[in-house]
Amino acid sequence: MNIIHFNNWFENLKDTDYLIIAGPCSAESYEQVLQTAQQLSRLKQVKVFRAGIWKPRTNPNNFEGVGEIGLQWLKEVKQQTGLLTTTEVANARHVELALKSEAVDILWLGARTVTNPFSVQEVANALKGVDIPVMVKNPLHPDLKLWLGAIERIYKAGINKIAAIHRGFFPFNSSKLRNIPKWEIPINLKTLYPQLPIINDPSHIAGDVYYINEIAQKALDLNFNGLMIEVHINPKEALSDAKQQLTPEQFEQLLNQLKFRSHDFGQDFLDQLEAYRHQIDSIDFQILELLAQRFEIVKKIGQYKNQHNIPIFQLKRWKQIISTRKKFAKKLGLSDKFIENFINFIHQESIDIQTKINNNGTNKKIFSKQSNS
Ligand code: PEP
Ligand code: MN
User: Fold this and answer.
1) Could you tell me the fold of the domain covering 267-367?
2) Domain ranges (residues) in the chain
3) Sign for the pseudo-dihedral over CA of 123, 128, 134, 137
4) Given a cut of 80, is residue 329 above it in pLDDT?
């Protein structure tokens, strides 16, 4: 992993713990952009106004954005409201126009662009020698390396004011959400690059206003650094993403309802937390010791079965394990699903251990691997 030194540009933008970005999915008309921005500028938490002017749509017959004229409207937003502005760029021409207009304070790369390294590189090349913050959305599919690769391409172009935007991943199975969050991916990204701000985009994860608050709250609880939320003066008439856009009133209601967690901990709080964590540490080590003891017995059983030429998997025993453990777990107030997964996981390891014992010396490869040439 390459070392990246992110500039702490982000800290200067926000006066609370979180950066809030809001605005319509697409800029559609002068009135729609300015009216939405005016409403948002009344909310003290909102620092940045978003609006897409070049829209990457799945179907070519859909509205693909107003293009260059939208830059003039964003400039008006800056002048009339004092909000910072951000828009999506997907190629060198977009970058060039956005920079020339002086209407855009922050650029962002969309999920479809990040999926294609050629496009990311084109944008990165257009950014050489320029000092502007860039936000990089996650790619459409859950590939952390691809997301990191895009961030690295932008960084190598000389941009060190970077943030990541988590907007969820294409669901291959049916899902209530438009995109599945797979929270572990942004968490892994944060673990690799603690200095990199990560913003959550609950609008594109939800796909419907109904789910936005639960996703936004989860992001705050997971210590994300900000939110980017789609807000439209009249969502019903929106030309893109109508179902997921909030009215300014709904957005205000959301901001009032969300619990913005504090990053400013007192010493008493830290002492108590430390005490709880000690307890957790001690329990975890006990669990590990017990698991090691369990697997020692599993090995003995494996050898015993092998000596008596008995198959490893015994359906009756397995059913009994699952049902007795679930019953006991229920009494302890543990979740059914968790216990089923946990026991399955342990059982799989037990089978692997016993398979190794069985295979020892008996399951030598008898065919050689075919080369691809
Ligand atoms: C958007 O922000 O409106 C957008 C097109 O997002 P994404 O690239 O995440 O689909
Ligand atoms: Mn959108």
Assistant:
1) Chorismate Mutase Domain, subunit A (1.20.59)
2) 6-257, 267-367
3) positive
4) yes
Side-chain-side CA neighbours of 109 within 13 Å: the count stands at 36
Give me the pLDDT at residue 172, please. Answer: 86
- Environment of ion ligand 2 (residues, CB < 5 A): 25, 241
**Is the minimum distance from the CB of 135 to ligand 1 under 6 angstroms?**
no
Cα–Cα distance measured from residue 205 to residue 211, given in angstroms and rounded to the nearest whole number: 9
Q: Is 121's pLDDT higher than 80?
A: yes
State which ligand 1 atom lies nearest to the alpha carbon of 26: 3
**Cα first-last separation, the chain:** 31
Report how far ligand 1's centroid is from the alpha carbon of 287 (Å): 44
Q: Which of 281, 169, 286, 165 is closest to 228 using CA atoms? A: 165
Length of the chain: 373
Superfamily (CATH) of domain 6-257? Aldolase class I (3.20.20.70)
State whether residue 47 is helix, strand or coil. Answer: strand
* pLDDT at residue 286 tops 90: yes
Q: Whose CA is nearest to atom 10 of ligand 1?
A: 111
- From CA 331, how far away is CA 339, in angstroms rounded? 12
Residue 372, pLDDT score = 63
